[in-house]
Amino acid sequence: MAGYTGRLGRVRGSALIYLSSAILLSSAALAADPPSRAAAIAAADAAAGLPVKADEGVPVCADPPPSGEKLAGDMKLGSEGHSIEVSNGGGGDALVNIRHADTRKLASRFYLRAMESMTIEGVPDGIYVLQYAFGPALSPDCKTFTRILRARELPEADDLKTQTIDDDQHTEIKRSSVSYELSVTETGNVKPVNIDAAAFNAE
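^ that's the sequence the OP posted. Answer follows.
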């Protein structure tokens, strides 16, 4: 069924690429007893300057959406199509953009809480670029952050194209499945590009 069912590394087949959402802990911290996953995430967020709560006195979204709810964009999902999976392993709550690579128009934006994941199904054919950002809290419109602490874009676009194999014996339709994972650690072999808040927020 098409839609957002609520899950950045990229998976194609068995290849997994982890994208960083924070810097590594200091060598002193690494020499200490291994921290819990929650403690490691909190320490990495603090080192990266990611706040643990919203800025005091700044208006925020009164009812934050669940992970995977579409917030903006012109993408129309079908009953059949490609799938995009995103999981947020840490670094704080995130906004994720899927943009049309040719026009740079916003195809879809969704909210993804820390330690949660989502899957978008029924994605139409197209060439898409993925962006993500972290911020202290959603603004009153519940579509953007009150301020963006970090925004990044993947250096390569994904070409999602339906393939039809038709021969004398059978007809087979192949679609793409792409997966991204936000990770606290700096272990990725894909280096996202920093972008400014205006470029990220543009629709």
